[in-house]
């Protein structure tokens, strides 16, 4: 859910056009009023399942679902301008938007971190330390690159931006091309682009973001979050039930993801337009689909914010105060 991750939609099979907006769902859903939920086409967060199974409509909402291709920026702008009421979004970008003044609240989580370092098969890279001095393709402005750089620095003591040769890529397909041409030894990317590279036999997983997190923080449990749900504060005030219902809808979507995988992958394919074999590998490699805001998850999220502030991505003083974060940034149903 980093910016570059979304740019994957500009190339390859995922660039196929998706219907931008679905109309209002069945009239039975008028009990709680109208809610407009928008999500990114390559969100990989089970929001597609909420949409296609109309899991908000089943909870009494007149739900309108919008699929937004491309990068997160237009989707955040839609929320900020109140053209939609709720969205899925990279957790790091959500925090950045909040400190920049967007009136939003995090109401729940959707999926754990999706990033990884993939090494070229014949590059002779077996350990994270072997990346020193190597050529690595990355989209430097993405939250995934920033997070992985911070975790490597914290866990392994060297800086990917200074101790390797970063080859700046413009999009995930650009990284794939660089690796395929052997112009780089590794890439820093995210699902499903990492899965497609491994599936093609061009690369192997060197380390996943979740493993870097475990080493850097010493946390053996809990899942750092890549995607969360945001609700505009002006909508949340008079419609407080949406926080609970969106989490419950996500819970049902996660249940379908794990217990009805054929249906889950069918929905993901319908929305993303990715090839079936890529979806199957990405499904298998997904760290964890998540829902809600339990205490343990909130503690992990606060730790993520602390690291993002420590290494310069976030600036606001609010991230130094867990009490303020719980009160001002999160909304727990």
Q: Can you walk through the features of this model?
A:
Strand 1 (34-40), helix 2 (47-52) and strand 2 (62-68) form a beta-alpha-beta unit. The chain is of the alpha/beta class and 333 residues long. It has two domains: 3-113 and 223-329, 3-Layer(aba) Sandwich (D-Maltodextrin-Binding Protein, domain 2), CATH 3.40.190.10; 115-217, D-Maltodextrin-Binding Protein, domain 2 (3-Layer(aba) Sandwich). The radius of gyration is 19 Å and the shape is globular. The longest helix has 19 residues, at 241-259. The protein starts with a helix and ends with a helix. It has a five-stranded mixed beta sheet, with helices on both faces. It has 15 helices and ten strands.
Compact summary:
It is built from 15 helices and ten strands. The chain has 333 residues and is an alpha/beta fold. The chain folds into two domains: 218 residues, 3-Layer(aba) Sandwich (D-Maltodextrin-Binding Protein, domain 2); 103 residues, Periplasmic binding protein-like II (D-Maltodextrin-Binding Protein, domain 2, 3-Layer(aba) Sandwich), CATH 3.40.190.10.
């Amino acid at each position: 859910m980093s910016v570059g991750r979304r740019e994957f939609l500009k190339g390859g099979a995922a660039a196929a056009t998706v219907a931008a907006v679905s109309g209002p769902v069945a009239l039975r859903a008028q009990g709680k009023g109208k809610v407009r939920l928008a999500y990114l086409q390559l969100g990989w967060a089970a929001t597609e399942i909420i949409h296609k199974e109309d899991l908000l409509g089943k909870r009494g909402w007149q739900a309108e679902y919008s699929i937004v291709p491309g990068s997160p920026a237009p989707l955040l702008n839609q929320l900020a301008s109140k053209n939609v009421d709720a969205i899925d979004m990279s957790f790091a970008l959500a925090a950045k938007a909040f400190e920049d003044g967007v009136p939003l609240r995090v109401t729940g989580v959707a999926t754990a971190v999706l990033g990884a370092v993939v090494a070229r098969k014949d590059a002779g890279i077996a350990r994270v330390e072997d990346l020193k001095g190597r050529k690595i393709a990355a989209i430097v402005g993405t939250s995934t690159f920033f997070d992985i750089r911070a975790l490597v620095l914290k866990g392994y003591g060297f800086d990917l931006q200074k101790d390797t040769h970063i080859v700046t890529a413009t999009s995930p397909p650009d990284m794939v091309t660089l690796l395929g041409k052997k112009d780089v030894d590794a890439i820093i990317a995210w699902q499903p682009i990492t899965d497609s590279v491994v599936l093609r036999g061009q690369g192997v997983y060197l380390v996943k973001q979740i493993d870097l997190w475990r080493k850097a923080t010493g946390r053996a449990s809990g899942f750092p979050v890549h995607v969360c749900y945001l609700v505009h504060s002006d909508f949340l005030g008079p419609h407080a039930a949406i926080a609970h219902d969106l989490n419950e809808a996500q819970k049902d979507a996660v249940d379908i993801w794990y217990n009805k995988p054929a249906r889950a992958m069918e929905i993901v394919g319908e929305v993303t337009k990715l090839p079936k074999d890529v979806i199957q590998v990405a499904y298998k490699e997904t760290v964890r689909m998540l829902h809600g805001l339990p205490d343990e998850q909130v503690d992990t999220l606060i730790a993520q914010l602390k690291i993002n502030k420590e290494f310069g991505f976030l600036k606001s003083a609010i991230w130094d105060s867990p009490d303020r974060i719980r009160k001002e940034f999160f909304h727990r149903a």
